[in-house]
Structures are given as structure tokens and as C-alpha cells.
């Protein structure tokens, strides 16, 4: 699948893999790489990444900047707490991209009937073309 260009500092840097879930026909999972196409560093928290439909309505979604197996037991299964920035970067809950750098992005969403979905993040958006 080829993804289009967006608005803001991020751009798609690779073809994507879009997966459907047969038991959940409205659900989609997309994996691709994003690149910082700007001249300034970009730092994003995965929890601030949203998927919206063509009318701008927020869809149920989740995102992560990780491309490897990892566990989220921190601190050593000690319960809920605020993870340090370094730990957030390690587990993909946060990403920091220097100009020209890229990172993996996996996003899952439950589709709606409101047109082509878009990925929105603080400072920009990217199309999720199906």
C-alpha cells in the first residue's frame, strides 16, 4: 500500500503493511516508517497520536513507535507510575527524531463511515490511504 503525503514535519518513508482482522471487519492495523522531513528535531508521545475519519471525528485508536519485542514491566512490575523519558523512548511510547531520521510506527484503529482516515499528531497529520 502506498501512503500519501501529509502536513507537518513527518512524512511516510516506507510502504506500509495494512492488516485487517477477519473477526473485526472495521479494525485496521498499519505498520510503516515515518521520517522527520523538517529542519528541526521532533519529539512525540504515542498517546497523543490519533486517527480521525474524513469528517474529523476521532476514531478509537492506538499507536506505538516500536519495531521489536519488548516488555512494559517498569519499574519491575511495581504498579502504575510515570515512566521516565528514557524508558518511554525505549519502549516506543515516545519518539525523538532528528531531521532526516526515521522510526517505525504501528497504528491500529476501528474504522468509521466518515471517509478516508487520517493520522493526527501535535503539529501535523498523515493520510491513512486504504
Give an overview in words.
The chain has a single domain (10-125), classed as Immunoglobulin-like, CATH 2.60.40. It is globular and about 35 Å long. The strands form three sheets. Strands 1, 2, 3, 7 and 9 form a five-stranded antiparallel sheet that branches. The relative contact order is 0.33. The chain starts with 9 loop residues before the first strand and ends with a strand. With 130 residues, the protein is mainly β. The mean pLDDT is 84. The chain is built from one helix and eleven strands.
Layout: helices, strands, pairs:
Blueprint: E1 10-12, E2 17-21, E3 24-36, E4 42-45, E5 50-52, E6 58-59, E7 61-64, H1 85-91, E8 94-97, E9 102-110, E10 118-121, E11 124-127
Antiparallel strand pairs: 1-3, 2-3, 3-9, 4-8, 5-6, 5-10, 7-9, 10-11
What are the key terms here?
single chain, 130 residues, mainly beta, Immunoglobulin-like, 5-stranded antiparallel β-sheet, 4-stranded antiparallel β-sheet, 11 strands, 5% helix, globular
By CATH, the architecture is named Sandwich
Low-confidence stretches: none
Based on CA atoms alone, the radius of gyration comes out at 15 Å
Structural class: mainly beta
CATH class: Mainly Beta
Summarize the helix and strand pattern as letters: EEEEEEEHEEEE
Number of individual domains: 1
> What gross morphology would you assign?
globular
Overall mean pLDDT stands at 84
CATH topology: Immunoglobulin-like
Q: Indicate the proportion of strand residues.
A: 35-45%
Largest beta-sheet details: 5 strands, antiparallel
Amino acid at each position: 500500500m502506498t501512503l500519501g503525503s501529509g502536513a507537518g514535519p513527518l512524512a511516510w518513508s516506507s510502504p506500509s503493511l495494512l492488516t485487517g482482522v477477519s473477526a473485526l471487519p472495521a479494525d485496521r492495523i498499519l505498520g510503516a516508517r515515518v521520517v522527520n522531513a523538517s529542519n528541526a528535531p521532533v519529539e512525540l508521545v504515542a498517546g497523543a497520536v490519533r486517527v480521525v475519519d474524513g469528517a474529523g471525528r476521532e476514531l478509537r485508536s492506538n499507536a506505538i513507535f516500536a519495531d521489536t519485542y519488548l516488555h512494559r514491566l517498569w519499574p519491575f512490575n511495581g504498579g502504575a507510575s510515570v515512566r521516565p523519558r528514557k524508558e518511554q523512548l525505549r519502549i516506543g511510547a515516545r519518539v525523538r527524531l532528528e531531521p532526516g531520521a526515521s522510526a517505525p510506527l504501528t497504528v491500529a484503529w476501528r474504522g468509521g463511515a466518515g471517509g478516508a482516515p487520517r493520522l493526527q499528531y501535535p503539529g501535523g497529520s498523515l493520510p491513512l490511504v486504504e
